[in-house]
Design goal:
The structure is a single chain. This protein is of the alpha+beta class and 342 residues long. It contains 13 helices and five strands. Strands 4-3-2-1-5 form a five-stranded antiparallel sheet. Helix 3 crosses helix 4.
């Protein structure tokens, strides 16, 4: 079945009463069926605002340190390890934005900013050290057959010896999952090199949101019976995609990392659209809606309002995410909790 036919079938199955929203979905996807040709890829540049502005140039520079890594991959590691929190500390004593344990830092930490010290709490040292450590591991396993980046990630998780012993990613569930997560998540931090495929679940997510039109807003609302079926902005988008089998994080700034990022002129119905007072930093995103076409979204805007159609072309428009199952699954569990500020 072609992409176009699959979408028409999915939309028809969503409900007998084809409304304004469903007509938009049909129209846009009929056009999109001719435009979307599967072009994808991580690319070597970071997506707009996907890394906090304070670290953007560091990640872009050091992410090109060796062929086994790229800026999006390095960003994915930092997000997975600490959520870009330079003060993060784990129960296992992993420290800083890159979560080095003291013994590894003692051996592999570098003075990235040339100020005469190596400070695991300073991203100007820790981010270059993470890139340097990745490249060191890549050298250790350079003679192992297979994908150099996956072998490097496996060495990061299981040790270079295990990768050499098994001639590739070792048969450890934890290691295989780590490699899958980081390689999937990197697409959420990369600027697309071409048009990205539509999510297969987008029409169903729109249909769910459409059914909630007119529902009063509730800050922190997840739509439970105890909450009277009310939502806040990210509660609505989370529930909409959960209705089609994709579990998103709870808050908008983490939902931004659930897939690749189409440009404004590439938007398709079902894309999540985001808004922020800081257009350089995805961690500052404060609002999200579901795009329906024609420059409009369905969103739960604010206290005192109801779920409704709103235009997306406002000064605080940040960008968009085309939700993918792999992207959503790759997000760390800690990203699945919390509430938005709206």
């Amino acid at each position: 079945m072609t992409v176009r036919k699959a979408w028409v079938v999915a939309i028809a199955a969503a409900g007998a009463g084809v409304s304004f929203v469903m007509l938009l979905v049909v129209g846009v996807y009929v056009v999109a069926g001719d435009l979307v040709n599967g072009l994808n890829g991580a690319g070597r540049k970071l997506a707009k605002g996907s890394v906090p502005a304070a670290y953007q140039s560091l990640v872009q520079k050091w992410g090109n340190l060796c062929p086994a890594i790229n800026p999006a991959l390095l960003a994915a590691q930092l997000y997975q390890e600490s959520g870009f929190n330079p003060r993060a500390q784990s129960p296992a004593r992993a420290q800083g934005i890159a979560q080095f344990i003291p013994g590894t830092w003692a051996t592999h930490g570098i003075d990235g900013d040339g100020d005469g010290d190596r400070d695991v709490w300073d991203p100007n040292d820790a981010i270059p050290s993470a890139a340097s450590y990745d490249c060191t591991l890549a050298k250790y396993v350079k003679d192992v057959p297979g994908d150099a980046t996956k072998n490097m990630l496996a060495a990061y998780n299981a040790g270079a010896y295990a990768v050499i012993k098994y001639r590739g990613v070792p048969p450890y569930k934890e290691t295989q999952n780590y490699v899958r997560v980081i390689t999937s998540l990197q697409e959420s931090f990369a600027a697309p090199v071409g048009r990205v495929d539509p999510s297969e679940q987008a029409a169903g997510a729109i249909h769910y949101a459409q059914e909630k039109l007119g529902t009063p807003y509730l800050w922190g609302g997840d739509g439970t019976a105890a909450e009277g079926g009310r939502f806040d902005c990210s509660g609505l988008t989370k529930a909409a995609y959960e209705s089609v089998g994709i579990t998103l994080p709870r808050v908008a700034n983490d939902q931004y990392n659930a897939g690749p990022h189409p440009d404004r002129d590439e938007l398709l119905p079902g894309d999540l659209v985001f808004f922020s007072d800081d257009l350089t930093n995805s961690r500052a995103i404060r609002h999200v809606g579901i795009y329906v076409g024609g420059g409009y979204m369905i969103d739960a805007p604010r206290p005192g309002a109801v779920i409704r159609f709103d235009p997306i072309d406002t000064p605080d428009y940040f960008g968009a995410t085309r939700v993918t199952e792999d992207g959503a699954k790759a997000l760390p569990p800690a990203a699945r909790k919390g509430r938005d500020r709206v």
